[in-house]
Design goal:
alpha+beta, 1429 residues, 48 helices, nine-stranded mixed β-sheet
């Protein structure tokens, strides 16, 4: 609405300076809810304005003198450069940091420990290099993978740091790189440029130095936002020469992560001007609808010294070491195996100690030959057994796993079904198996779920629904050819509606399209003889474009008129008042006087507010409601349109009350709202519009499959709640039969849970027992509800507080909707120190926590958990019962903290997906981060683990590649553990028969090559190619994915099964062979023959097992098994050959052992018996288990599910609605004020940027000192300029001597107006007249002239006349001779007041159109406007 003096374009916090003191106070009259909330010491610091960040423009010598403590007594420069560094390593830190990370794995520590033991000759049973070489290989493989990932981040950083921008050097703007920027530098930015640092806006080519920015990459909002420069810099910095001499100093707060908060002041020429977030362009914003703007760098990033200072980079978070659930489980299993090996080695050592004592007692004559005592020998034997049994944790398994991860990553990269313009890419190769265990997906909305393209889909006019024509009709000739203003991009076509419009007989149809052409805040320009609409939101542009195609063309506007071409007839409507949209009113109204003199009110807004304000509700209204219900089911975004005719007497009375309300100093917003309410009553419904917010391709199928796979999808967005909820229904995350919990319901539930937990035994009050599983629930919350702090005396009771290490920073990082800075009637405005919105949950639960005596003590309750943890746990438990959660108005840090909250209390795998810089922190925090390669650059991709082109490819990534990878790695681990124990546990049984001497049973080469060649290929095939079902079946049966979420394929139970299976195999192989060879003098009577039979039996048993478990048979699987057996035969023949035996008998002692043993048929029968005993019982058990499992599963499926009505939960009951409102409108408050004040209008003549129109970027070369004036600048006036065209003469800025007279109309004391004929003097300071204008005077209404708008009251022609002497008057401009001239003297006295020392807010400034268009000129070119002589 903009009537609050502290609101408007910049949305700023007001500062007032009491007397000469330099301490600023917070103005209690100003709105402060825009600013982030703080408490404790932070409030005190802001109250005392303890600003410690000082930056001086164009003075690097001054800025470089500031130092900060780095380490001990060493200090470094506080301000250095603008270099970001998002990579994890650098040249010096890679080796130590990577080794530190790798030795966090217990397996690596275990192997390193065993290598040290192997280096001791007294206890070594194997050469030290047999384990050292594989460990080095493993470290190199993992280190190379990490290095490759980090090189990609370095490359991305280099691209960003080397982006070009124009920086002021001397007296001209030169092309430099982002990394060359320093705080205090002045930069020049053009349309579609990305802001390189946090910049103070100084001036722009837009009226009043406005600058439009798109913050999609920061907060996810799609609507444009506007920033505005201080009036003092706007007026005075009118050329590059003046900018070069600008020596202003900015004193502000230290860099922080509060995205929507900034406080400071500009000190220049002995005066101070308050600054806030409305003056700042944040890094990552994109300049829109603004040709050129100029700014001063306030915060710059320097990762090498001072750190990251810009707000977006401080919200990006740090790179975390991500490890999979299986990896963490293997860490625990390695620890468990090591402990078991220690116990087994201890038991075998005790056996050795007993055997040695017995041996010495029986054979005392050889005891003298013992070199060490029994205790020392036992000690050495313990370590020898530990080394011998170290093969229980095979190094080969971890090496092969790395190749499996790499192979599965390559398969993802090669999948052409996930490729659209850009192939999918697995940037991290160690998380593939975790893709098959995801249970929570946290998704951004804008650009991830939606395309951010609004299309006019349907409309309902006077109860008749008009939809798009059939496909066949669309191929005919363009039906809009008769309209020269028609936009060919509009896809909506309806021949019936078009014929009604062209007939021009249906009054309701006329008013419907007239409303769409009038009631909006769109700006229009002419480019290449075409109308170009510039809208603050894509919704408004779609509506105005639809009206344009149907013959109601919005042509031009001034601050008090709007021109519309209605079916070829040009009509000018006088705008009497604009009642702006905001998220509380949910409507916008325009009060206009048509050319015939009648007054009409046109209103559009949410159906819930429009229907409550209708004059009557008849058949048409009922049909419209049915149409709205239909639109809602189709997930279209709707607006209702209504109007009424206003009598002259009614308007005069209302205008008087409106003027009184608009000049109130207190409670202005409430008073204006009441006045608006009076006017917006007894409306007549015209109809409704339906706009489609296009979803990304395949979104519905993807989300449906994910839901069937038991994956919960949360939407975390910075956008408004209505928009997010509408997209939730469009994506089918929400449905009509769901119980959608909002803040009030959540409070009731958590309050009931709190009371139950304090009175009931532990567990009985759990939320899991509070709801029946058949109730379908969803949750819609916002950032304030999650993080709004409670007053300090209540303790730290933010919902997300305990998750964050920076708890105080988190409290200050609340994203507050600036549009809610005024309240509904009855709500009292409060100042900043009292303006803390206590969230409903904190208000309900926090009160009970203020005093321990208020909390009932229960001996059964968990006293070890703090109240904060209990609340967080209850909240997460409630969200886990919801099928979908939508979080609106959340900042980048809040996104990450929500993910961390779920990770903290739920042992689940989380995945975050997004496409903008505001998603980087969330992506880094989640277990898996997926970046979409969108239009906002590749920064999010460089911070992600996987890159996709669209959200729909997530379905195949998870359900196919993720599930396959998880299944493969689980089967690989289970089989590898089984085969290792089946072969290696024989060493334990053999120790009982070898006197516990730690002698190996197998041949040394068999031990070395068993895991390297003999059994490697089959397990590698399982890890790379195994499939239980095809890709098509995986997509058709998403329920198969649930097995990974429940860890069904590998867990402690599966691990114990593998151990038991391997132990049984080893027992059969050893003891069956021993029993057959007992007391015989046959071929099994010697040690080597026995070892060969046991080894061959184990190898064949393991091979048969792999044959049984492989489900996906290919030629590769057959070749893998065949070559494994061939390797055994060839290498055994070679290692047991006579030639190698003669070379080194100790190295190759098994001379012809296999040939001697296998030449006996009886030995073959023994091997066959062992294999059969190992295979047949296991096969029988599996068949029996599957037979018993199927009937049980069938019985579960047939179990009837009982539907539970929502009414059975009494504390969840809420007001029922007949239908769901599908209202959603991504509009921002404040644009109506810019129009009615004239701030947004009137382009300055001759304004051009400091670069050519094509913005060609030279490589660090100075631009030409003199650039010819671009001929296109004369076309940059608004279309109004074309209608009332003025001939602007070419003026020399060096010697300008105006001879014309300027007419000015100035309002005084809110009552009267006057005109003054003045000859502007060349020695006036630019804009000084404006500075001396009283800032808080209201504009009067003159009855002789047209009525004023709601914010101003000059005559209609005032919007077309520049008021300051520094701007030439267009030739041919009519004078204001008909204006009253009775108060010239009073006006003169008004202009002689002292200038204000504190820069007012935009709405306080009341800028007058035309008079404030003093803008910088081209580099090296004479200024276009007057300069100070």
């Amino acid at each position: 609405m903009g009537d609050n003096p502290c609101r408007g374009g910049a949305q700023r916090r007001c500062l007032s300076k009491p007397g000469p003191s330099e301490n600023y106070e917070l103005n209690p009259e100003g709105p402060t809810i825009m600013d982030s909330l703080a408490y404790g010491e932070d409030l005190e610091e802001e109250k005392n304005s303890a600003f410690t960040w000082e930056v001086k423009a164009n003075n690097q010598t001054y800025n470089s003198q500031f130092k900060e403590k780095a380490f001990l007594c060493w200090q470094r420069k506080k301000y250095k450069g603008n270099v970001i560094h998002t990579a994890k390593y650098n040249f010096f830190s890679f080796l130590p940091l990577n080794l530190y990370e790798q030795f966090h794995r217990m397996s690596n520590l275990y192997f390193f420990f065993i290598i040290i033991l192997q280096g001791i000759p007294e206890i070594s049973t194997l050469p030290w290099f047999t384990l050292f070489a594989p460990l080095i290989c493993l470290l190199i493989i993992r280190g190379t993978r990490d290095l490759a990932d980090d090189i990609g981040r370095h490359r991305s950083d280099r691209i960003i740091n080397n982006r070009p921008c124009q920086m002021l050097v001397g007296t001209s703007f030169l092309w430099k790189k982002w990394k060359d920027l320093r705080v205090g530098d002045l930069v020049c930015l053009h349309k579609d440029n990305i802001v390189p640092a946090d910049v103070l806006l100084l001036a722009s080519t837009e009226p009043s130095s406005l600058c439009y920015v798109e913050t999609t990459d920061i907060d996810g909002e799609t609507n444009l936002k506007f920033r505005q420069a201080l009036m003092v810099t706007h007026h005075k910095l009118t050329s590059v020469r003046k900018m070069a001499s600008f020596q202003g100093k900015v004193v502000c707060e230290e860099p922080n992560s509060r995205m929507h908060h900034f406080m400071g002041y500009l000190k220049w020429e002995g005066k101070k001007y308050s600054l806030d977030s409305g003056n700042i362009l944040l890094r990552g914003c994109k300049i829109r609808n603004t040709d050129t703007c100029y700014g001063m760098v306030i915060y710059a990033d320097d990762a090498n010294s001072a750190g990251l200072n810009t707000k977006i980079m401080r919200n990006c978070g740090k790179i975390h070491l991500k490890r999979t659930k299986i990896d963490r489980l293997m860490n625990r299993l390695v620890t468990l195996i090591f402990m078991c090996l220690v116990l087994i080695s201890t038991a075998l050592t005790l056996g050795f100690w007993d055997k040695v004592k017995e041996f010495k007692a029986k054979h005392h004559y050889v005891s003298e030959n013992l070199m060490y005592s029994v205790t020392t020998e036992s000690f050495f034997t313990f370590w020898s057994f530990l080394i011998l049994l170290s093969a229980m944790v095979p190094m080969a398994m971890f090496i092969i796993v790395e190749f499996i991860y790499l192979g599965n990553s390559i398969f993802i990269n090669w999948d052409m079904q996930m490729s659209q313009h850009m192939p999918a890419k697995a940037r991290s190769t160690s998380l593939n198996d975790q893709l098959g265990q995801v249970e929570y997906i946290f998704s951004d909305k804008t650009g991830t779920l939606t395309q951010n393209i609004m299309t006019f889909k349907k409309c309902c006019i006077n109860g008749i629904v008009y939809g798009p024509d059939e496909e066949a009709a669309l191929h005919k000739e363009n039906p809009y050819l008769w309209n020269k203003y028609a936009d060919g991009k509009l896809l909506f076509q309806n021949a019936k509606l078009l014929s009604v419009v062209c007939g021009n007989k249906d009054r309701m149809v006329q008013e419907f399209w007239r409303l769409l052409a009038i009631c909006h805040t769109v700006m229009v320009q002419e480019k290449d003889n075409q109308l170009l609409y510039q809208a603050a939101s894509p919704d408004e542009e779609a509506l105005v474009t639809a009206a344009r195609n149907f013959g109601y063309v919005f042509l031009a506007r001034t601050q008090d008129s709007i021109t519309v071409v209605e079916l070829g007839e040009e009509r000018v409507y006088q705008v009497l008042a604009m009642m702006d949209f905001n998220s509380i009113r949910k409507r916008m109204s325009v009060l206009v006087r048509n050319p015939e003199g009648s007054i009409y009110l046109y209103t559009k807004g949410a159906d819930t507010v429009i229907f409550d304000r209708l004059y009557k509700k008849g058949l048409t209204e009922g049909i419209t409601e049915e149409a709205l219900t239909s639109f809602a089911k189709q997930t279209l975004r709707t607006l209702c349109l209504a109007y009424k005719k206003v009598g002259e007497a009614v308007y005069e009375e209302w205008r008087r009350r409106h003027r009184e309300a608009s000049i109130l100093l207190q409670n202005r917003a409430r008073a204006l709202h009441q006045v608006y309410e009076e006017m917006e009553q007894n409306l007549q419904l015209l109809g409704a519009t339906a706009i489609e917010d296009r979803l990304q391709d395949g979104i519905l199928e993807t989300i449906q499959s994910l839901k069937q796979g038991n994956i919960k999808v949360w939407v975390l967005t910075g956008d408004k709640q209505e928009t997010a909820v509408n997209i939730g229904f469009a994506c089918q995350l929400l449905s009509e039969d769901m119980l959608i919990l909002e803040e009030k319901e959540i409070v009731r539930i958590l309050e009931a849970s709190w009371e139950s937990d304090n009175h009931l035994p532990s567990g009985s009050g759990s939320l899991k027992n509070r709801f029946l599983p058949q109730v379908k629930m969803a949750m819609v919350i916002n950032g304030e509800f999650l993080c709004t702090p409670f007053p300090p005396f209540a303790g730290q009771d933010q919902l997300l507080l305990s998750v964050s290490k920076e708890s105080r920073a988190l409290v200050q990082n609340v994203n507050v909707d600036v549009e809610e800075s005024w309240q509904e009637p009855g709500e009292q405005r409060i100042d900043f120190l009292q303006a803390r919105r206590i969230s409903l949950m904190r208000q309900t639960l926090g009160i009970q926590l203020r005093s321990p005596g208020l909390v009932p003590q229960n001996k059964h309750s968990n006293t070890q958990e703090s109240p904060e943890v209990r609340r967080e746990r209850a909240f997460v438990e409630l969200t886990s019962r919801c099928q979908a959660v939508i979080c609106c108005r959340v900042t980048p840090k809040q996104k990450a903290l929500i993910v961390a909250l779920v990770k903290k209390y739920k042992n689940v795998v989380t995945l975050a997906i997004g496409d903008g810089a505001n998603d980087i922190n969330m992506i880094k925090t989640a277990d898996i981060g997926v970046g979409l390669a969108g239009q906002e650059g590749m920064q999010v991709v460089q911070s992600s683990d996987y890159m996709l082109a669209q959200f729909c490819f997530l379905r195949r990534l998870l359900l196919v590649h993720g599930r396959w990878s998880y299944m493969r790695i689980c089967k690989f681990l289970r089989y590898f553990i089984y085969k290792t124990l089946a072969s290696m546990m024989v060493q334990i049984w053999f120790a009982f028969y070898s006197g516990f001497t730690a002698q190996p049973l197998y041949e040394g080469w068999f031990l070395v090559l068993f895991n390297l060649l003999y059994t490697t290929l089959p397990v590698l095939y399982i890890g790379l190619f195994e499939q239980d079902v095809s890709a098509e079946q995986s997509l058709e049966l998403p329920q198969l994915y649930i097995a990974g979420q429940k860890d069904e394929l590998f867990n402690y139970w599966i691990f114990l099964q593998a151990i038991a299976h391997g132990m049984a195999t080893s027992l059969v192989n050893f003891f069956m062979t021993l029993w057959i060879s007992h007391d015989t003098a046959g071929p099994l009577s010697d040690y080597q023959s026995f070892a060969v039979v046991v080894a061959l039996s184990g190898l064949l048993s393991i091979t048969v097992e792999v044959i049984l478990i492989i489900k996906y048979w290919t030629v590769l699987s057959v070749l893998a098994i065949f070559f494994s057996l061939c390797f055994y035969m060839v290498i055994s023949w070679a290692s047991q050959s006579f030639w190698l035996f003669t070379i080194s008998p100790k190295t190759f002692p098994f001379l012809h052992a296999d040939r001697n043993v296998l030449s006996h048929p009886s030995i073959l029968l023994v091997v066959l018996l062992n294999v059969s005993l190992n295979t047949l019982p296991v096969l029988a058990l599996r068949v029996i288990y599957q037979a018993l499992k199927k009937p049980h599963a069938k019985g579960e499926e047939e179990a009837p599910t009982k539907e539970v009505a929502v009414e059975s939960l009494p504390y969840l009951c809420r007001g029922s609605r007949a239908r769901r409102s599908s209202y959603a409108f991504s509009h921002r408050e404040g644009y109506a004020d810019l129009i009615t004040q004239g701030t947004i209008l009137w382009r300055s003549p001759g304004v051009n940027s400091d670069t050519p129109a094509d913005h060609t970027i030279p490589s660090n070369e100075e631009l030409a000192p003199s650039i010819r004036e671009s001929p296109s600048y004369q076309k940059k006036m608004s279309l109004l300029g074309k209608k009332r065209h003025q001939s602007w003469g070419k003026v020399s800025s060096k010697d300008m001597q105006p001879t014309f007279t300027m007419n000015s109309s100035i309002s005084v004391e809110g009552q009267l107006s006057f005109t003054k004929n003045m000859a502007p003097s060349t020695n006036w300071k630019s804009g000084s007249f404006h500075e001396k204008l009283p800032m808080k005077q209201a504009r009067p209404y003159s009855p002789e002239n047209l009525p004023p708008t709601k914010e101003r009251s000059p005559s209609p022609r005032e919007s077309q006349i520049p008021l300051f002497g520094n701007q030439p008057l267009p030739s041919g401009q009519s004078s204001l001779g008909n204006q009253p001239e009775s108060l010239e003297e009073k006006g003169e006295s008004a202009t002689n007041k002292e200038p204000m020392e504190v820069e007012p807010s935009p709405s306080e400034r009341l800028p007058v159109p035309g008079g404030n268009q003093v803008l910088p000129a081209l580099a090296g070119q004479p200024p276009l406007l007057w300069e100070e002589q």
